[in-house]
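Hi there, hope your week has been kind to you so far. Would you mind checking whether the tokens look sensible for this chain? I owe you a coffee for this, so here goes:
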Amino acid sequence: MTVNTEQVPKTTVVVIGGGYAGVMAANRLTQRDDVSVTLVNPRPTFVERLRLHQHIAGEPAPVVDYREVLSERIRLVVDTAADIDAPARTVTLEGGGTLT
């Protein structure tokens, strides 16, 4: 019996937006070994929007570091997506970078 030791080809997924849906999607995608995930968000912290009313009432801002809500397998890019080129399979960032 031979064992295939080749690395499984990875599918790269870019999730744009780190709100509740983006965080959930990114975390779920990491359950697959053949997927690598990058999350693009303009802020380095996750805002618990469900708790914003408490902030208005005087409590501290409801924000947490993304490392507390994201899987360690997710690459966080703090930037804003400026353009999505579906045929080229690229995302251009406002900061000048490009993700494939």
Observations:
- The chain is about 15% helix and 35% strand.
- The chain has one domain: 11-99.
- The beta strands are 11-16, 35-41, 45-47, 63-65, 74-78, 81-85, 90-93, 98-99.
- The two ends are 37 Å apart (CA to CA).
